[in-house]
């Protein structure tokens, strides 16, 4: 090796340059060989990545498109849910301006369900049948549904967090004992907050109460604002008798109407099982309408929505309930 070095130093300059160039070619050639993929696997990793870059996402999923989803419940004169209506039946208006319905669904899918149970003193004498109705509601649900249970009197409490096993809800409901006052607003506020942990996009609350609020920290106005932001359909049952006043009925009815749910008035607790069965069916027969607002302003304003039934089946008088508005994004 030493003799090669001496000969290299005494060789003509032109030969030394040629020798260096040849050596560099050998080095880079070897590096390319060692870094190449094994035979039969050339570009295995690269091709899928290139393909993904070339695929455009569906228009409804583009980052610059804000699809507003509005759940709609359609019932007949007797309060029974009506299914099978085509997309052409519906018209959707935002602040009085008709919108193009870009998405329509009437498929049954899994639901995240919250049960808000009145455990105040006025429920004495109605508790057993009410508990049985809640249990029936859960056992009639689909296998992929999930539930949570909140009781409220002076304060609301989560008795059981999200579960798909109705046996846990049944066991938790057995511990409910009527006492004290009624913090309905706080209970609804807690339930909407709890829904942030839901697994499913379809979310609904079932409120069962026989009285109005007389103990909450939150006001009715604060609670209703929070409900508007929650994207949750509220189905409520008003158990009449005792101290259930007209104002309390109006409150539950407004909560349901504003969120696309339904209010049910029950004069006799013996009718509860039938009403609960109707609610269970109604939740699963909701329509979902999607639109991209013609108003592109991101001003954070509350925008009112109206849904009309354009061509109901002949001879049928139908009633539509829908989430009556939403808050626009605020980028100011």
Structure description:
This protein has 332 residues and is of the alpha/beta class. It folds into three domains: 55 residues, no CATH class; 89 residues, no CATH class; 173 residues, Rossmann fold. It has nine helices and 14 strands. The strands form three sheets. A six-stranded mixed beta sheet has the order 7-6-5-8-9-10, sandwiched between helices. Strands 4-11-1-13 form a four-stranded antiparallel beta sheet, with no helix packed on it. Helix 4 packs antiparallel against helix 5, helix 4 packs parallel to helix 9 and helix 6 runs parallel beside helix 7. The N terminus is likely disordered.
Summarize the structure in short.
This protein is 33% helix and 25% strand. It contains 9 helices and 14 strands. α4 runs antiparallel to α5, α4 packs parallel to α9 and α6 packs parallel to α7.
Low-confidence stretches are 1-8, 24-64
* N-to-C order of helices and strands: HHHEEEEEHEEHHEHEHEHEEEE
Estimated share of beta-strand residues: 25-35%
**CATH fold annotation of the largest domain:** Rossmann fold
What is Rg? 32 Å
Shape: globular
What is the CATH class designation of the largest domain?
Answer: Alpha Beta
| Count of DSSP H/I helices | 9
Q: Which percent bin holds the helix content?
A: 25-40%
How many E-type strands? 14
CATH superfamily of the largest domain: von Willebrand factor, type A domain
């Amino acid at each position: 090796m030493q003799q090669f070095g001496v000969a290299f130093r005494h060789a003509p300059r032109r030969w030394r340059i040629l020798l260096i160039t040849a050596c560099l070619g050998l080095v880079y050639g070897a590096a390319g060989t060692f870094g190449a993929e094994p035979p039969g696997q050339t570009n295995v990793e690269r091709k899928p990545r290139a393909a993904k870059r070339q695929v455009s996402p569906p228009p409804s999923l583009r980052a610059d498109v804000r699809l507003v989803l509005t759940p709609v419940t359609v019932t007949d004169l007797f309060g029974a849910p009506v299914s099978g209506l085509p997309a052409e039946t519906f018209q959707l208006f935002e602040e009085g301006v008709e919108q193009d319905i870009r998405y329509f669904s009437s498929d049954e899918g899994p639901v995240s369900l919250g049960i808000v149970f009145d455990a105040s003193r006025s429920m004495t004498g109605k508790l057993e049948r009410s508990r049985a109705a809640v249990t029936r509601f859960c056992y009639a649900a689909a296998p992929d549904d999930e539930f949570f249970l909140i009781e409220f009197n002076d304060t609301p409490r989560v008795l059981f967090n999200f579960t798909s096993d109705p046996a846990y809800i049944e066991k938790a409901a057995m511990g409910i004992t009527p006492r004290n006052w009624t913090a309905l607003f706080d209970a609804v506020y807690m339930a909407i907050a709890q829904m942030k942990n839901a697994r499913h996009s379809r979310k609904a609350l079932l409120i069962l109460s026989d009285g109005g609020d007389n103990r909450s920290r939150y006001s009715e106005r604060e609670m209703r604002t929070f409900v508007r932001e929650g994207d949750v359909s509220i189905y409520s049952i008003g158990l009449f008798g005792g101290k259930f006043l007209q104002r309390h009925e109006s409150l539950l009815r407004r909560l349901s109407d504003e969120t696309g749910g339904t209010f049910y008035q029950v004069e006799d607790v013996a009718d509860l099982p039938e009403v609960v069965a109707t609610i269970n069916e109604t939740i699963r027969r909701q329509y979902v309408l999607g639109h991209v607002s013609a108003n592109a302003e991101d001003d954070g304003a509350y925008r009112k929505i109206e849904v009309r039934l354009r061509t109901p089946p002949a001879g049928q008088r139908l009633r539509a309930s829908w989430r009556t508005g939403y808050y626009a994004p605020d980028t100011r």
